[in-house]
Every structure is written in structure tokens, then in C-alpha cells.
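Supplementary Note 3. Input sequence used for the single-chain structure prediction.
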Amino acid sequence: MTYLPARPDLEQLRHQAKDLLRDANQGDANALARIHAVSDRLILASAQLAIARECGFESWPKLKREVERRAILNSRDLHRLSMLLAEEPGLAVSPMVNWADHRLGANPLNYIAMIGFDHERLGLPADLPGTGGVAAGTRRAATGAGGRPPAGPGGRTHTRAVTAADCAHFAHYRGRNANHSHLVFLFALAMSCASRRRRIALRCAAVL
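The predicted structure, written as C-alpha cells, is reproduced below.
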């Protein structure tokens, strides 16, 4: 299976499908085999389906949706996120799958909580305005979609507050030089969660 790169590019995937179809029409045996693995028709939709299946998705629309979701979270565009979750609320809780840097999947809210520490690797600016609004919007949609806390290593259940506190401690003890505004966001995220919020908020505040 081909894993998606950490910095999604839907246009690149579209070009890959067009190139695959072109090669198949020119008689390239490998391209023909890839398309014929999913369809008997040499059309663009078949090439797109082949790309989607190779990336671990059932269909091209599902691949497109996943790439759009991560791009929106990376850009912290609350308007686009609101439209996306209005159409498909389950995207607030369904794991982010088949990414090269998250091969076991990632919970969307946990991903947002960590984005301030991963900004260099993801090619994002150090200043991350809009993170709090996107996190709040995702959490509201997750609640409406019947979301449950994600399971961590060893099956340990993480509330959103635990995740926020753990991320703040990670930044502090590993010396990642996280900016202060992101730690404040983690503190606010912990305080917004009812479960064990006082003790966990204090864990976050300890590193501010």
C-alpha cells in the first residue's frame, strides 16, 4: 500500500491519475495492470479508483475527503472545517488513516493538539492562529457524532484533556521549545473538558 505524504496535495493525486490513464492508453503494461485490478474500463474514473485503492481507500471520493480533511486541519480554516463537518459529522471522530506519519491512525482532535509541536515537520508556521477555534469546532462535532475518547498505547483511554496535558508535558520535558500561545491553548482545551479537568488543567499549567 502507498501511504499518503504528511503534506497532502490533492492536485498531485489528480495528476497521478491522469498520468496513469495516459500511460495505460499508450500500452504501458504496469499502468494497464494497475487499472485492470479495479476496472475493465480505461477511463479517468478507473485510474482515480486505482490510485485510491493503492492508498488504502475504498473509493476516490473517500481518498479526496481524507486529503481535504487534513489540509483543512493543517490550515486551521474554521469556515471550511464547519462546512466539511456539516456534510459529514463523522469526520470529527473517525481516525485519520493511511498517512506516512500516522500509519496507525490519528484522532482528529489529538492531531490538532499536537500540531503546534509538529509545525516544522509539517512545514507550517510557528504561529498557529485559529487552532483553538478549530479544536472547539471539532470537539462540538465529535460530541454530536457520538464521539468517544481515543484509545492510547496499551488500550488506555484518553480524554481530550489527558491528551492536552500529555502534549504540554511532552513539549516541556523533551525541550521542543513549543511557543507559549500553544501551551495556553492546551491549557484551555484541558479546562474545557469536564472529565478530571481540575487535576489535568493543573498538569498543563505546571509547564506554562
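Residues 149-158, 168-178 have pLDDT under 50 and may be disordered. The CA atoms of residues 114 and 167 lie 7 Å apart.
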